[in-house]
Amino acid sequence: MRNFDYYNPVKILFGKGKIAEIAKWIPKGMKVMMTYGGGSIKKNGVYEQVMDALQGFDIVEFGGIEPNPKYETLMRAVELAKQENVGFLLAVGGGSVIDGTKFIAAATCFEGNEPWDIVAKGARVNAALPLGAVLTLPATGSEMNSGGVITRQSTLEKLAFNSRHVFPKFSVLDPMVTYSLPMKQVANGVVDTFVHVMEQYYTFPEQAEIQDRFSESILKTLIELGPKLIHAEKPNYEDRANFMWAATMGLNGLIACGVSQDWSTHHIGHELTAFNGLDHGITLAIVLPGVMNATKIKRREKLLQYAARVWNIDTDQPDAADQAIARTEQFFNELGVKTRLSDYGVGIDTIDRIEKRFRERGDFALGGIDDVNVDNVRAILTSRL
Ligand code: NZQ
Ligand code: ZN
């Protein structure tokens, strides 16, 4: 196992009715800016629950944060937060709203001239407004991590940033608020969580037994739950609760402790969203099987561990590794997520743009391990047409 530092200060308020408790965790007298997305919270009762819980606080609202939150939109929120002298941010929504709010928190306190540098150049974040979150879509893990992914409309760039200053002070995970999710978003969330785990697990054996078995338990839970969630006639509380916790555990840093990681599927996926607007989860379902195929020789040992422990495949069979890759793709398909670029009308022109962009950025290894790199990204994507 490698050396590691682990720090996670996020208070989790999990379960039915927990939104009612948020006022306890917001400093009294703070002006609160409540941020949200395109309006789903106004249709499913979450907005009212939050407003009831915040009685007595001075509240400013900022709605309209779009999926794959845009820098241009978020900078309007930064202006508003400064104008109104906001002291606390409350993100109510999915990963996009939470990520966007993390950026607002950092950009409001940013001392440099160009807040985009936080994302594009990794400019140092020395302070941020404190924030809390009410999660409405299990998927990204943003509710319990210190990362965010922001898109710049004018340049079609989608990039991640990270700062310990943007860990939420608390996050509410009430499975009931997921009942209004369209099935497509449930499927995206299952795929996103699955791929987060894979990016932290599918590398090399490093004798990190706890982390490996945690990862495998999340993957197996998703394999069991995914089809149940998608095919249920009506939402089942326990299934939603397990899904919500799986998504949070998938990307809160715990399973990444002491192991190698490879985030290439995400990095390639972000480009597909930037250029073609594909949902985040969909891009991952397309790219992961290609990445697994391209790395299956170098990472054979871990792939066989995955095959045996996650899919119960007999690894004495010569094609066990290929079976594991096929089962992974089939799982995404069973959730109703199509896994080919051509299913979404994406062709060679996008592959050209993506390869060019990675070359311009000059990073050789796309996600941390050099078996997925600027020289084979074209082949990986072409194999997914
Ligand atoms: O905007 P509203 O009206 O709220 O509707 C949203 C949006 O249209 C809807 N929705 C959310 N909760 C709902 C609901 N509809 C009905 N009922 C509910 N309870 O779902 C749509 C998608 O929401 P979004 O927040 O975009 O989805 P998700 O949570 O999948 O977030 C995706 C973003 O997170 C980034 C992605 O790149 C993408 O930008 N990621 C962030 C990560 C992180 N911070 O650690 C890691 C991830 O890998 C990911 O990259
Ligand atoms: Zn993701």
User: Which structural class do you get from the secondary structure elements?
Assistant: alpha/beta
Strand order, main sheet: write it out: 1-8-5-4-2-3
Radius of gyration: 20 Å
Total domain units: 2
Strand residue percentage: 5-15%
Give the end-to-end Cα distance, rounded to a whole number of Å: 38 Å
Biggest beta sheet attributes: 6 strands, parallel
List the keywords.
single chain, 385 residues, alpha/beta, Rossmann fold, Dehydroquinate synthase-like, alpha domain, 2 domains, six-stranded parallel sheet, two-stranded antiparallel ribbon, 14 helices, binds 5,6-dihydroxy-NADP, binds zinc ion
Write up what this structure looks like.
- Strand 6 (147-152) and strand 7 (157-162) form a beta hairpin.
- With 385 residues, the chain is of the alpha/beta class.
- Helix 9 (264-276) packs across helix 10 and helix 11 packs across helix 12.
- The model has no long low-confidence stretch (mean pLDDT 97).
- The chain has 2 domains: 11-177, Rossmann fold; 183-382, Up-down Bundle (Dehydroquinate synthase-like, alpha domain), CATH 1.20.1090.
- It contains 14 helices and 8 strands.
- It has a 6-stranded parallel beta sheet with strand order 1-8-5-4-2-3, with helices on both faces. Strands 6-7 form a two-stranded antiparallel ribbon.
